[in-house]
Amino acid sequence: MTAAQEILAKNAVEPRGKKKPQQPHLLRGLIFDAQGTIYSPAFTNKNGQRYRYYVSRDKIQNRAHLESIPLRIPAQEIEALVENKLRAWFIDQRNLSRITGKNREADHDTIENLSTRIKGLSVEHLLKTVSRIVVGHDAFNIRFDILNLKNVLHEVYGTDLKSWKWSEDAVHLEVPFKVGKSWHGAVVMRPPSKGTPEDMFDLPPHDLRDLIRGFIWRDEHFNGMTIREIARRDKRSDAFVGSMIRKTFEVA
Q1: For 77-117, what is each residue's pLDDT tens digit?
Q2: Nearest residue to 195 via CA among 181, 179, 208, 183
Q3: 2 and 106 in contact (C-beta within 8 Å)?
Q4: Is 71:241 a contact under the CB 8 Å cutoff?
Q5: Pick from 209, 243, 238, 212: nearest CA to 225
Q6: Among the residues of 120-204, which ranges form H helices?
Q7: How many of the other CB atoms lie within 10 Å of CB of 94?
C-alpha cells in the first residue's frame, strides 16, 4: 500500500457526524452575477408554506439590470442543481485523477477511496467546497476550490491530504439552466398565484426593497452588529432599521 493510500485507508469511511446547517440557505454569500452583484437570501410564505430565494441586490436597490439575468432564484432548485453537478463530477474518477495528479491505473485504490469519501459527504459539507457561483445568461459557473475540499475531508473524516501534490487549485464547472418566469418577470419554479398578498415579491418596489434590506439587517444583527451600527452605516434611523427587522418576522 502506498503512502497516499495509507492516508485515506487509516480512517473509517463513515463520517464523524453530519451537522445540519445553522442557516437554511446553503449558498449564502456565494452567488453573484457577472458584474459582481451578490444575491442575498430571502423568504416568502404562501398558504403556510415557506419558499426560499436568492435575490439580486440590484433588485433590492431598484437599480437597472440586464433583463436576461434572473433577479431572484429559487433556493432549493439552485442548491440541488449545484449539489447534483458536483456529485456527478466527483463520480467520474477521471476528474479526481486529473486534479490530484495521480494515475488512474497505478493509483486506482487511492482514487477509488477518495471518490467514496467525497460521495459520502452530506449536502452541507459538499457545498462547503464551493467558493463562488456566477449567474450568467443561460448557465451558472460553479467554482470549487481544492483547499476547501481538503478542509472538508479533514473536518468530516480526519483525512490529511496536505502532502498531496494537487495539479489544480480550483475547478470551474458550467451548468446550463432553463427557468420559467412569472407575470412580473421574476424567475420562479413554484410561483404563488399572481397578485396574492402572501407573495412579498408583489409588493411595490420601494416596500420590497426595504423589506429585503430588513432580511440583510436581521442577519447582520444576529451576527453581532448593533442596530445603531447598521443604521449609521446605511444612514437610516435606529427606529427604521429596528422596524424593518421586526417586519421580516411577519413573512419569515
Answers
A1: 888 888 988 998 998 888 999 999 898 888 999 999 999 99
A2: 183
A3: no
A4: no
A5: 238
A6: 123-127, 146-157
A7: 8
Do 157 and 46 lie in a common domain? yes
Residues facing residue 134 across a β-bridge: 32, 141
Q: Look at residues 90, 113, 126 and name the one whose alpha carbon lies nearest to residue 18.
A: 126
**Beta strands 31-33 and 130-135: pairing type?**
parallel
Q: What is the pTM of this model?
A: 0.63
151-161 in b/e burial notation, b at 16+ Cβ within 10 A?
Answer: ebbeebbebeb
Q: Per residue in 16-65, pLDDT tens?
A: 555 443 447 899 999 998 888 889 888 877 667 777 888 887 666 655 55
* Predicted pLDDT at 205: 66
227-234 and 205-222 are packed helices; what angle lies between their axes, rounded to 10 degrees? 140
Domain identity same for 133 and 210? no
Q: Which residue's entry shows cell 416596500?
A: 207
- The residue assigned the cell 449558498 is 27
Containing structural domain, residue 18? 3-181
State how far the Cα of 182 lies from the Cα of 199, in Å rounded to an integer: 12
The DSSP code sequence of 122-134 is: -HHHHHTTEEEEE
Residue 99 sits at φ, ψ, to 5 deg, of -80, -25
∠ Cα 233 236 238 (to 5°): 95
CB atoms under 10 Å from CB of 249, counted, come to 9
Structural domain includes residue 104: yes
Same domain, 220 and 135: no
Q: Is the domain of 226 the same as that of 164?
A: no
DSSP secondary structure code for residue 8 in this structure: H
